[in-house]
Design brief:
Blueprint (H helix, E strand, L loop, with lengths): L2 H8 L4 E6 L3 H4 L6 E6 L5 H13 L4
Parallel strand pairs: 1-2
């Protein structure tokens, strides 16, 4: 999670935001094309790649 993710979300860009031990329900970026990965442990590479593939398969840019 970073300020850049919030700017991207507010600008309508598609984002994948990683959270670890935070409260994404409160702190996640706002926008229409936001994907969030939050787990007790850091999200796995497989999980992140699957989110990216899902986004790119839908044709969102």
């Amino acid at each position: 999670d970073s300020g850049v993710a919030h700017l991207a979300g507010a600008s309508g860009l598609t984002t994948v935001t990683l959270f670890h031990d935070q409260r994404p329900a409160i702190w996640h970026p706002r926008g229409k094309n936001i994907s969030i990965a939050c787990e007790d442990e850091y999200p796995s590479v497989t999980h992140i790649v699957s989110l990216i593939l899902k986004i790119t398969a839908s044709g969102v840019q």
